[in-house]
Amino acid sequence: MGIRRVALVAGLAGLAALLAQPPIRRAAKSMRTSSAPGSGAYELAAGWFLGGYYRDIASDCAAALAGVAEPSILEIGPGPGHLAERLLDLLPDAHWMGLDVDPAMLDAAECRLVRAGTRGRATLVEADVAQMPFPDASFDLVVSSLSAHHWPDAERGFGEIRRVLRPAGRALVYDLPTRWAHAETGYAGLAAADAVFGTHARTRAKGVGPLTIVWRADLRP
Ligand SMILES: C[S@@+](CC[C@H](N)C(=O)[O-])C[C@H]1O[C@@H](n2cnc3c(N)ncnc32)[C@H](O)[C@@H]1O
Question: Are both 90 and 103 inside the same structural domain?
Answer without folding.
Answer: yes
